[in-house]
Amino acid sequence: MRTVIFDLDGTLADTGADLIAAANGCFGEIGAGPQLDPVADKSTAFRGGRAMLRLGFERLDEADVDAAVEAQYPRLLELYGENIDTHTVLYPGVAAAIAALRDEGYAVAICTNKPSGLAETLMTRLRARHWFGALVGADTLPLRKPDPAPYFEAVRLAGGDPTRSLLVGDTVTDRETARAAGVPSVLVTFGPEGAGVADLAPEALLPHYDELGGVVRGLIG
Fold first, then answer.
1. Mean pLDDT of the chain
2. If you placed Cys at 109, which of 88, 134, 196, 204 could pair as Cys (CB 3.0 to 4.6 Å)?
3. Nearest CA among 217, 187, 180, 191 for reference residue 202
4. Could you list the active site residues?
5. 92 three-state secondary structure
6. Is 75 in contact with 23 (CB distance < 8 Å)?
7. Closest CA to 62 of 77, 75, 72
């Protein structure tokens, strides 16, 4: 079965504000105050919780950044889980695009570097989890993107064929995952990197979900 695999943060949903709020919550609890800006630091948010904490502690001139990050990371996950959908929304056109793919016989699934429990919770609260045949998170397997193993697992769980599949994402991690898996990549231009993702030379760019069907058919039939 033809299969389309989606990244989550920055691809299906704009999660940046809630991620940054959780990181700033950690800094607030240690008396440092907010260190990250919801707009200027959004691209860092989509690189994960540790990346946000690292940036904040570097701004604070923390003596041992690695230790500080690991100490605060569990608390960040707690704060994020408590407020996971306060500001998060699906990008325009996602619902219609996914429905159209399913109607045309494509399998669809999610492969994300967000912890699987948080990803499941978020997609359920957004009332979108049932659209996808599988969800593979950062902790589903011992490996995570850009290793291709989670991608292949998402395809398998969705009942798809990896030789007729592609990955829709928003960052260099997704581009490298697709390259490692030997499949086409489609990078969205409405994520935090904007049109700059063109520099990664994906097989296609996606400026809006209204165009997804045509892009997918052009790449995997």
1. 96
2. 134
3. 187
4. 7
5. coil
6. no
7. 72
